[in-house]
């Protein structure tokens, strides 16, 4: 399919409506540039309220991992609060190459710190829960949650790739 051809895309699973998009999803076969535009309010809210997001995320992290989390509270904040700032700024600029580079750097750092991959993936789900608390009211739709979930899958792809590259390089 040429990038100029139109693709029929479901836009909201509750209404069954569809819309036309030009070409295939540009970002990791999951998202179009328009999706990033539509999530702009979410990215701004997470960036601007990142301290609140990280605080609730850490609360969930300790709840789910009990006395055995790999990262201390200080490490958690030092790693994830600046990462959220960088990543959301990348997404707001629609710079997916920079976003991918930043997420891969995070994956390498977590591998170097010895965080188990299962803990990373579970923690990303907890991040989604924490982030959704600050979503602007006008973004609370099934369609927007699906797009945010697709972005989360991109994040997992990048983190797992970097994690295994870091482990392979270390052996």
- Radius of gyration, in Å, reads 17 Å
The stretches of 5 or more residues where confidence is low (pLDDT under 50) are none
User: Which overall shape is indicated by the principal axes computed on the Cα atoms?
Assistant: globular
| Mean pLDDT, all residues | 86
Strand content: 5-15%
Order of helices and strands: EEHHHHHHH
The largest pleated sheet is described as: 2 strands, antiparallel
In terms of quaternary structure, the protein is single chain
The structure class reads: mainly alpha
Number of helices: 7
Secondary structure: number of strands? 2
Overview of the molecule:
- 66% of the residues lie in helices and 8% in strands.
- With 171 residues, the chain is mainly alpha-helical.
- Strand 1 (6-12) and strand 2 form a beta hairpin.
- Helix 3 (50-65) crosses helix 6 (117-132) and helix 4 (73-92) runs antiparallel to helix 5 (96-112).
- The longest helix has 29 residues, at 142-170.
- The mean pLDDT is 86.
Descriptive key words:
single chain; 171 residues; two-stranded antiparallel ribbon; 2 strands
Concise summary:
With 171 residues, the chain is mainly α. 66% of the residues lie in helices and 8% in strands.
Structural topology:
Elements (H helix, E strand, L loop, with lengths): L5 E7 L4 E6 L10 H6 L1 H9 L1 H16 L7 H20 L3 H17 L4 H16 L9 H29 L1
Antiparallel strand pairs: 1-2
Helix pairs in contact: 2-4, 3-4, 3-6, 4-5, 5-7, 6-7
């Amino acid at each position: 399919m040429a990038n100029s051809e139109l693709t029929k895309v479901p836009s909201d699973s509750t209404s069954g409506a569809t819309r036309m998009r030009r070409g295939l999803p540009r970002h990791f076969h999951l998202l179009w540039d328009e999706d990033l535009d539509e999530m702009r309010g979410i990215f701004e809210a997470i960036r601007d309220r990142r301290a609140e997001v990280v605080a609730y995320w850490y609360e969930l992290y300790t709840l789910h991992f009990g006395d055995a989390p790999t990262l201390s509270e200080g490490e958690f904040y030092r790693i994830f609060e600046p990462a959220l700032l960088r990543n959301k700024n990348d997404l707001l600029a629609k710079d997916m190459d920079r976003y991918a580079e930043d997420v891969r750097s995070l994956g390498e750092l977590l591998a170097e710190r010895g965080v188990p991959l299962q803990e990373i993936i579970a923690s990303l789900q907890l991040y989604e829960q924490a982030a959704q608390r600050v979503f602007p009211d006008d973004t609370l739709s099934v369609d927007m949650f699906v797009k945010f979930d697709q972005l989360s899958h991109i994040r997992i792809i990048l983190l797992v790739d970097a994690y295994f590259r870091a482990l392979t390089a270390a052996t």
